[in-house]
């Protein structure tokens, strides 16, 4: 099998994936997505991309659009564009998990700044405001009172992206200063860690100074993480997704 590993920033992970692919008998190669120019008006299978592409771009939209283009060329990509879109958008993730009756923090969407106080009244303080898309804890903010929340809204209204003028508001989960990140491949947890928030910080993101410690998941974590991952994959997708699941306990 010819495996193409797509990236927009070459990290040790992509190099390790290439090595492991070769150890498994694959003809693996690394391809910088930033250098691609693709003709999209006529669907065709692009030569040189092999039998399967592994999508590793950090940029959500670059990964999403490139995956859609390659799928249109009849190339199989992991993760699929549907999985990437669902997992990369907090609103879509919340809707899918809610439809499957999987417990998640109580969440409200306010479509204008004027309705944010109504959502806040329903949630109570403290509450968390998050962007619809994004990672690494960027723009994830904690509001402990109405005055702080109003300041956050005023700041968001100054941003150019109209998507930032709709508000994803979530209850603040009272938990130990750590959460669980599980990476699911197919129906198994491939890796699992505790993520500990640094001193003086409530967010556990490693990009914010959080610390990861590996641990072996018990049955409850295994079952919940796999159940979460299943919701992001279309029923007819032959390649089950690789997803990172966050679980709070």
**Count of domains:** 3
Percent of residues in helices comes to 25-40%
Give me the CATH fold name of the largest domain. Rossmann fold
**Pattern of helices and strands:** EHEEHEHHEHEEHEEEEHE
Indicate the overall shape: globular
Query: What is the residue-mean pLDDT, rounded to a whole number?
Result: 90
Tell me which CATH architecture of the largest domain applies here: 3-Layer(aba) Sandwich
**Helical/strand content category:** alpha/beta
Please name the defining characteristics of this protein.
249 residues; alpha/beta; Rossmann fold; Dna Ligase, domain 1; D-amino Acid Aminotransferase, Chain A, domain 1; 3 domains; 4-stranded parallel beta sheet; 4-stranded antiparallel beta sheet; 7 helices; 12 strands
Provide structural commentary.
The chain has 7 helices and 12 strands. With 249 residues, it is of the alpha/beta class. It has 3 domains: 2-78, Rossmann fold, CATH 3.40.50; 106-171, Dna Ligase, domain 1 (2-Layer Sandwich), CATH 3.30.1490.20; 175-247, D-amino Acid Aminotransferase, Chain A, domain 1 (2-Layer Sandwich). The chain has a 4-stranded parallel β-sheet with strand order 2-1-3-4, with helices on both faces. Strands 5-8-6-7 form a 4-stranded antiparallel β-sheet, with helices on both faces. A hairpin with a 2-residue loop joins β9 (178-185) and β10. The longest helix has 13 residues, at 60-72. The chain is globular and about 55 Å long.
How is this structure best summarized?
The chain has seven helices and twelve strands.
Topology:
Blueprint: E1 2-7, H1 12-23, E2 27-32, E3 52-55, H2 60-72, E4 76-78, H3 81-88, H4 90-99, E5 107-110, H5 116-123, E6 127-130, E7 141-143, H6 146-157, E8 167-171, E9 178-185, E10 188-196, E11 211-214, H7 219-230, E12 242-247
Parallel strand pairs: 1-2, 1-3, 3-4
Antiparallel strand pairs: 5-8, 6-7, 6-8, 9-10, 9-12, 10-11
Helix pairs in contact: 2-3, 3-4
